[in-house]
Amino acid sequence: MSVQSVERALDVLEALADHGGEAGLSEIAARTGLPYGTIHRLLQTLLTRGYVRQESDRRYALGGALVRIGGAAERLVGAWAEPYLTKMVELSGETANMAVLEGDFVVYVAQVPSPRRLRMFAEVGRRVLPHSTAVGKVLLAGHPNAAAVFERTGLPRRTEQTITSIATMMTELSVVARQGYAMDLGEEESGVHCLAVPVADGSRVVAAMSVSGPVERVSALDRDELARGLRKIAGDFGAEVFGARSRPAENVRMRG
Amino acid sequence: MSVQSVERALDVLEALADHGGEAGLSEIAARTGLPYGTIHRLLQTLLTRGYVRQESDRRYALGGALVRIGGAAERLVGAWAEPYLTKMVELSGETANMAVLEGDFVVYVAQVPSPRRLRMFAEVGRRVLPHSTAVGKVLLAGHPNAAAVFERTGLPRRTEQTITSIATMMTELSVVARQGYAMDLGEEESGVHCLAVPVADGSRVVAAMSVSGPVERVSALDRDELARGLRKIAGDFGAEVFGARSRPAENVRMRG
DNA sequence: CCACTCTTTTCCACTCTGCGGAAAACTGAT
DNA sequence: ATCAGTTTTCCGCAGAGTGGAAAAGAGTGG
User: Which of A2, A5, A235, B210 could pair covalently with B196 via S-S, beta carbons 3.0-4.6 A apart?
Assistant: First the structure.
């Protein structure tokens, strides 16, 4: 049995979020179907706690307490990813990573290393330019400001394979957007191949997951089959973290 | 009259946030004083909506829905700052900006221009290196990884005044931390002075606010008095956005 | 300045939701 | 198997939360 008032308060917050972060009481009523008095009472409670603010025109907006508590939750995402990265290691035999965009850089936020003695390693916290990594290509494919990022950072050559032309890179990104995964064929590090897939919150790509290892081993894998498997795992992860949305859903209990 | 169940659900979320993002039910009980049954019922509601997750060891953690809704709130912070930046323009006569750290860069997220014909302008969205800006110094003063940032970015000379030595910069940052404001004395742009102060969420500096203008005008102002005034305004802003915390507080209604 | 319309806020009688203590179940250690 | 600590479930009850209606507020046009 759930707590109705809490469900309703979350409905109100999500109505605000869906309305660009700000709405009038009657707009919230339209989205939630709740009576004005009920909405008003819930909003007053959220107001006093800083989760909602009221503008000078009496409209309501999401509040600063959400920024703080959202930041606290964000710092946990890497830890949540580990069981899924473990599955990727099991599937491919290679080291699995998760990365996010931080400004113009790719930052590795989680990793599960391959059990093999010869393995790729990229320390968590490491930041690299996006152009020469598979995760970087995934994060920028479909990104409205991808060209601007490349204009700012340039595409410095890392290996003989590195793509150094913005035009070639934009073509590459449209391929990535179409096929749903990106490859790094020795572009960041000679002799290392990498395949990366998106982690999405709805239609927004919020992270990328990848597997990487020596070219001989990675190129021996069936690329499309590997991509399908990795996409499935990344999709499950995205659904677990972001999937619950205004409807009760069975939450997968993570097992150690 | 507030909604008790909603207050309690927020208490539970904040107890999790204060406990590193993750806690057992009895730890939440210790922090909130609520009965186990009550906490459990509230957690189940938050669980089904994705605002909380349960780990394999039955402990609870903040959930992905907070990441999403926190991000939605974060996109509004710049708009909230404008009335305070307006006050800073009124106080100083100069253009006022707010900036945040995004990776190794300073990004301007809000601005209110000076009414004068001769005025500073930095377009919202512009990203600059932190070493040669007052806001950058504020954001990195006291930051545990400040030296690492400078090692990555370097301190390229922008003007004759730019600080280009990491050692000198670290000394400068300790002065900034002590006096509570930073100056840019023509370091980013010749002939332009800038004074910046922190916006804090508790002890965390989350943004910086500044005023900047031609050296003749800015240096004619009483620096300490200006800093005091700007700190007061930035403090009010921080208190408004982040201040409400587990206790009902009068929320300042912003006026157009 | 007034009337109108739409929106937000307040009120209050009522009912059913949320409460919390106790019991049951679970988990890890011995 | 037992124990201790923790989490989950149950259920009678009372007061918290409800929602319709009225009051109040704000913006607009004449």
Answer: B210
